[in-house]
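Lab channel / #folding
Pinned by the channel admin:
"Please post every new chain as: sequence first, then the structure tokens as a reply. Keep commentary short and put observations after the output so the thread stays searchable."

First post following the new format, from NK:
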Amino acid sequence: MIADLFEEIQKAKFLLKNVALQTPFQRHQNLSEQFKANIYLKREDLQVIRSYKLRGAYNKISNLSKIEQQKGVICASAGNHSQGVAYSCALLKIHGKIVMPITTPAQKVRQAQFFGKEFVQIILHGDTFDDAYKRAREIAEEEKLPFIHPFDDEKVIAGQGTVGLEILENTDVHLDYLFVPIGGGGLAAGICTIFKHLSPLTKIIGVEPLGAPSMKKSIEAQENITLEQIDKFVDGASVKRVGDITFSICKDYLFDVLLVPEGKVCSTILQLYNEDAIVVEPAGALTIAALSQYQSIIAGKNVACVVSGSNNDITRMEEIKERSLLYEGLKHYFIVRFPQRPGALKEYVNEVLKPGMDISYFQYAKKNNREQGPTVVGIELQQKEDFSLLISSMEKNKINFRYLNEDSDLYTHLIGF
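Reply from TO:
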């Protein structure tokens, strides 16, 4: 399979020549200094639809027969794949249907319609991606439309694999390590295929979100398994099951699969924006966020990271900041039972909180006839080392409190993230 796929990737490169941008492959000065290595970024966030997904979608649709193209195509997606299919339909002037969950943010719906213009029909169905996927498959069967899978298709994988070809064409150094994000595995499978043939000594490191380790779990089980539950925050790389084709390739050719906490992803998004004015989506930050796990290994080496996309909804920034602060140990939530008398809060602020500790969240329950009333309090710190000082200060002042950060269910219920 991998030999045939290698040929397909080379054909795809020719097909995509005037469609997908050959995105920059650049040495990143700040990261190189931070990790004492030569860190290069493959900037697929600068692609025309701001992600690499155009490559696979266009290659697949272009390889359909004329009869199939005349019928139109259909896909299910609430993310970058929908935009890749939409843009491809507009370029090829064929009709496409894109099924999205009703819960899809309006911005993503508008983007798909913008790229697809009059050639695309958006269908909103169900509350989850699984609902939308099932409906898209039903429509495909009813109307005999080609279904454009986001990753588990050889033509799609071949299109994504052109990222690997471009990396090798645009570097004059041997790459020791290449970090690749994994969702369904299409990009990783394509890149593994290219490097197996053209740079077999390069170690390919797959990166998944901690809350959606479908490829890592499957490789460990030595069979493609379906996860029962996942954290969907890193939406561009959170799937319950990777592709069967992609699994068959990745299990043999990935050197390692790393899991990155969602909070670490958020910290990386903010770091890239604040230090380099680079805007990435959560999946786009995965590979850079994983570098610290290999810090001692990659020192002095040539390392590349694929930055997969930048379609970040601005309405998510508050949650991104929140998750980052929690991960860095700079924000802590408590249920505090204040005495129901005047001056109780003032005493807490004056006697418990030290310099560098700020109340950033305060939700006070209605008074009742009890002596103490529960209040949810969020404290933001300037240094994570101050947490132990905060706890000892509350204990010293005999504050009746319960720590929420470690109680995920109660935290989610009360705070909302």
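NK: The chain is about 45% helix and 20% strand.
TO: also worth noting, The first strand starts at residue 25 and ends at 27.
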